[in-house]
Amino acid sequence: MSNGTNCYHCGEGVLAADKNKYKVYIAPEERDMCCPGCMSVAEMIVGSGLSSYYEHRTDLSPTAKQLVPDELLRLEIYDDNEIQNEFVYQDGEIKEITLTVEGLTCAACAWLIEKSLRNTQGIHFINVNATSNRITIKWIDAQIKLSDILKRISNLGYSASPFQADQHELMYNKQLKSYFRRLGLAGLATMQVMMFAVALYSTWFGDMEEMYRQLFRWVSLIVATPVLLYSAQPFYSNALRNLRTRTLGMDVPVSIALLGAYTASAYATMTGTGEVYFESVSMFTFFLLFGRYLELRARKKTSELSANMAKLIPNMALRVDKDKTEKLIPTKQLEINDHVIVKIGEVIPCDGTIVTGETSVDESMLTGEFLPIPKSVDSGVYTGSLNVEQTITVCVTKTHKHNLISEIIRLQNTAQSSKPQISILADKISRYFVLALLIISAGTYLFWLGHDPDKAFWITLSVLVATCPCALSLATPTALTCATSFLSQRGILIRKEHVLESLTKVDEIAFDKTGTLTKGTFTLTRIKSDSELPENELLRIATSLEQHSTHPIASAFKSNIEKIQFNTTENHIGLGITGTLGDDTYNIGSSTFTKQTSSPSDGKEIVVYLIKNGHLMARFYIQDEMRENVSTTLDYIASIGLDVTLLTGDTENNTNKVIDGLPITNKKTSQSPESKLAYINHRQAQGKLMLMVGDGVNDAPVLSAATVSVAMGEGSDLAKNSADVVLLTTDFIAMKYMLATATKTYKIIKQNLMWALGYNSLILPLAMSGSVPPYIAVIGMSLSSLLVIGNSLRLLK
């Protein structure tokens, strides 16, 4: 309903709800607008100094929708909830999306987008990863629409769209082809111009007639012009974005150098006086583009993991309808409780549980373990894994957007999106460095203008080029992206941004035992009766009680026998179960809980005691295997100087049987969740940084409290949601990989920063003194950036 006010731009009524919402100052006062479109167009008109348009117009302007390009109008389709279901993750009122963005060339571009959008109402979080060309955005849909966000990015000169693996790869290929064309033109032109430069400046041709010298200059101008206008165009576009938003990016000094050298040489050609350096312009552009091309290829390699993971999801699935008919449908259309047939050798298209059939499944793409895993009815299977042996039918438990691969990609993007302190510091230094570079360049020009005017311009050009802080901006994000990708390939999922930085600072690592150091897959090996009841009846009582427990040991009591319905049951987390049946009270659990004394003859088996009214009825002997490479990993942890602590709810006797011979410096048994939490809090209060590794529901509080937390992939959902890292692999060697990679990552980041800062500190005085020709400055800057990228790529090996 209109409030009686009309839009100053198009004349349509302004809704009462939008009163004072859309306003633009058009002298001499603020004017009401009806929508964001009219407001944007009016701001553009005023910002371009064309306010007089409104004074002299003879009719009202067309509506903003008529003025907005078709490309922007098409963005509005992304506001449709059904379309968003494919690529938007929602948590309460906050929505999250990962976008592919075209046009990013460096960290300065990323900072520009972040700065422009961060204070926008409705945007809860934004981060731009210049290494992978992706934007992670969280927003409140009630306050801002996705299409508005995409339009704002477009207005900055960048093109963004929802991340899709195929489209992301096409974007990279498109950029590579574009750079290759520009690079080819610059290379051919450089060779031609260099021939004329040799003729002009060498003594091989003796005294050349002025007519021919001038001809060579004009031909060089003609050949170099396409290089300046076409090949170097990306540098100008980025520089204009920076200047339009009042920021200083790395392409600003580059553009100044290029345009300045070309303009000075063109003036010398037209006037017939002075020297020309068209070969420097062409060579400068060629080496800059060559560096950017190699950099783009390296960035593509670092971002390939999540794109490749997304490609693991099949496009089609064979669904079985209720009438038993089979229908091939797109995987994205699968819904929860749909039944899907997966034949031998096919990739499983959904997360679900097997309802018919037995097979083995290759899950190496998730865990890094290449041995197929046996699966039967009720076993869980995951999207992207390979069905090896038999045809199976799978019931869908998660939609396409929420399957494990999609979650891994989303969490990996989140981990890469937020920046650790060292990255934030590097970004700040690089931004201020550009300002300092421009000031130093101006001072250099003024100094040489007074001492040797002929050299002033070219020495200033060398300063602008040689000290461009590209390497400084690439030092941290390339290393973090490579490290995250490497760990993901080995079944280590980083969920929080601080992990790699914090892992290098932890003082002590605390482990749970059951399901963490051990596999947590328990097997009942024997029963020893201490009553007159037969073993099958004792097992029936124990199974009926243990079904109420979430502890991993309870899984050893799974049986198809008929269960007893107890009047009441109480789960004592980490200790045991109490149940009442009529006047009788039953307890089942550890020796501590049941107040029994363990026997030395129990060996390395875990003993669970069944008590009725205070009297021992039976002992159940359970076996649990250690994970692979536990000893090797703990030896490594001890060798790097970290304390190893065991926090377990199991008894000391059972614990000693399992950890015998392991390098554990601090052991705490019979720990409740509260006592585990108290220990972690106590150690952190003493200034220790703690790493906690666990898997069960009872570990969730302590995982949340620790500086860094790791959950096992087979553990409870609550534990995984509380953890900073999830180990998808069952091999404990992953802990060693994680710690070693974190240490190597920050070593490489420091190397990158030292090289970038050291190179700029060394080259600056040389360039200011006139010791570095412009073409050498270009080569040095490109090699500096490539060295940083190449050093970071070592993390992928």
Structural overview:
The protein is an alpha+beta fold. It contains 29 helices and 31 strands. The strands form 7 sheets. Strands 19-31-30-29-20-27-28 form a 7-stranded mixed beta sheet, sandwiched between helices. The chain has a 6-stranded antiparallel beta sheet with strand order 11-10-12-18-13-16, with no helix packed on it. α16 (421-451) packs antiparallel against α18 (470-489) and α18 packs antiparallel against α28 (733-768). The longest helix has 37 residues, at 165-201. It is elongated, with a radius of gyration of 34 Å. The model is unreliable at 64-70 (pLDDT under 50).
Would you spell out the secondary-structure blueprint of this structure?
Blueprint: E1 2-6, E2 13-15, E3 23-26, E4 29-32, H1 36-47, H2 52-56, H3 64-67, H4 70-74, H5 81-84, E5 89-91, E6 94-102, H6 107-118, E7 123-129, E8 134-140, H7 146-155, E9 159-162, H8 165-201, H9 210-231, H10 233-244, H11 251-271, H12 278-302, H13 304-311, E10 316-320, E11 326-330, E12 339-342, E13 351-356, E14 359-362, H14 364-367, E15 373-375, E16 380-381, E17 386-387, E18 392-398, H15 404-417, H16 421-451, H17 453-466, H18 470-489, E19 492-494, H19 499-503, E20 508-511, H20 513-517, E21 523-529, H21 535-546, E22 568-572, E23 576-581, E24 584-589, H22 591-594, E25 606-612, E26 615-623, H23 630-639, E27 643-647, H24 652-659, E28 666-668, H25 673-685, E29 690-694, H26 700-705, E30 708-712, H27 717-722, E31 725-727, H28 733-768, H29 774-793
Parallel strand pairs: 20-27, 20-29, 27-28, 29-30, 30-31
Antiparallel strand pairs: 1-2, 3-4, 5-6, 6-8, 6-9, 7-8, 10-11, 10-12, 12-18, 13-16, 13-18, 14-15, 14-17, 19-31, 21-26, 22-23, 23-24, 24-25, 25-26
